Amino acid sequence: MSTSAKSSKREQSHHRIVEVASRAVRRHGYAGVGVAEVMKEAGLTHGGFYAHFASRDALLVEAIEHAGAISSAVLDQRIAERTRDTGNALQALIELYLSDEHLVDLEAGCVVGALAGEMPRQEEAVRAASAQRVDRLVRRVASSLPEGADPAWAGVIAGALVGNLQMARIHGDNALGRAALAAARQTLVSLFAAPRAT
């Protein structure tokens, strides 16, 4: 096998491991990402892990970054689609983030929404990668604010999005969880995204 073929196979394996771990960390939390389980689901042997990563934390850092990039790309596309119809990017963001779909889609949803409560207790490298995802969420909200809005709203709204999603997930995919999201959507849109009278 040529060097480039070996490199390509290694890159594919590496990507597969990160992809599996990015779903697992959102589904089970940081502690729920076991090296043996991830490698098995990726179709690789446990012993091959250290050919790809120096440590489990190194895997978690890549998994968080990958999960964040994927979910951000999907959210960007969906916000753009909705904004074409309404012209209101903040309303689109609030409605998509606090949607019934996001309530149940742990594996593909926002990393911050899945892990915020656990982030402060991680080792430094994992905590730093997690903090970057929080910063990116705040920046996303800031870029969606209506013209003339107070920039301080961005952190407040981001916190409200994450907190309300987590509270609804505690109730689960049921009438209570969906009602909690609906109330949060309506309140946040009316407070921050509704057109202001001039």
What's the short story on this structure?
The protein is mainly α and 198 residues long. It has helices at residues 3-28, 35-41, 56-86, 89-97, 100-104, 111-115, 124-144, 153-171, 175-193.
What does this structure look like?
This protein is mainly alpha-helical and 198 residues long. The chain has a single domain (54-193), classed as Orthogonal Bundle (Tetracycline Repressor, domain 2), CATH 1.10.357.10. The chain contains 9 helices and no strands. The mean pLDDT is 93.
CATH topology: Tetracycline Repressor, domain 2
The fourth-level CATH homologous superfamily is Tetracycline Repressor, domain 2
Number of strands: 0
Give me the CATH architecture, please: Orthogonal Bundle
**Overall domain count:** 1
Number of alpha- plus pi-helical segments: 9
| CATH domain class | Mainly Alpha
Distance between the termini: 69 Å
Helix percentage: over 70%
